[in-house]
Design brief:
By secondary structure, this protein is an alpha+beta fold. 65% of the residues lie in helices and 17% in strands. The chain has four helices and three strands; from the N terminus they run H-E-H-H-E-E-H.
């Protein structure tokens, strides 16, 4: 088993949560989302993020608006819907509980 595969699966598992968290303070263009993820060492390619954004939009968690660009095609800006904000709050609680549980398990394992 290769560690890179496991690491990639772990990142994919939290990517949705990270994207929603990025958008909690307001709308963002896809390249801004990618840049924020990159700065956090969450390496994601465009081929991964676009289908995920579409899935989140179709689930009613995100909405978007088009804005004309002076340097190319119109840009799509994403933002959380009210449902998305509620969903993110629930994920925050779940993340905190999961983080505590994993820390408990891994620290107990290390002690043994």
């Amino acid at each position: 088993m290769k560690i890179e595969n496991t690491k990639a699966q772990m990142r994919k598992g939290v990517l949705e949560y990270c994207i929603l968290s990025i958008l909690k303070d307001g709308e963002a263009y896809t390249s801004d989302i990618l840049e924020t993820l990159k700065d956090a060492k969450m390496l994601v390619v465009e081929g991964t993020i676009y289908p995920l954004l579409t899935r989140l939009k179709n689930a009613g968690l995100l909405s978007y608006r088009w804005e004309e660009s002076t340097s190319g095609p119109p840009r799509k800006y994403y933002e959380l819907t009210e449902t998305g904000k509620i969903f993110l709050n629930e994920l925050n609680t779940t993340w905190s509980e999961l983080q505590q549980a994993v820390n408990r398990v891994t620290s107990e394992t290390i002690k043994k």
